[in-house]
Write the C-alpha cells for this entry.
Amino acid sequence: MVIVYTRTPVVSDMVESVVVRQLQDQGVSAVAWHIAVPGVHGPSRRQVVPVVTSGEYTSVLSVNVLEVKQVERDYPATQVARAEIKLFSVVTQKLVWSMVADTYVRTIAATNYIMPEEADVQKFAEALTGELIRSEIL
C-alpha cells in the first residue's frame, strides 16, 4: 500500500500513482491508497490499519511532505518539496526502513496549488526504488 501525504488530494493521488507504477515495474504488487480507499485523503493510522490488515497487505510505504522551500536555480520549478519516506511492516506494525528525499515542484499560475511535474515525480520514484534496491528491501 502506498500512501502520500500532501495538502492537496490531486497531488497525493498523482504521486501515489507514479510511485505505484514504479514499484510495479520492479515486480512489487503495490496499490495506491486513493484507489483502495477513494475519497479519504491524508488518512490517520487508525484509518490505515484496518484497511491494510483486512486487505492482506504486507507493507505500507508512506510519503509525507515535510516542507516546501524556495530555491535559486535555472529551472522552471523554483521550489523543493522535502519528503520523509517510511516503510512499515503490516505483520509487525514496525518501521522497516526510512529516508528523506527532495523533489522539485512548481506553483500553478493563478492558484495556490504547489504541484510537481510528473517527470520530476518519476525521477523521485526511480530514486526511491533505487534506494530500496540498494538497501536490499526490493
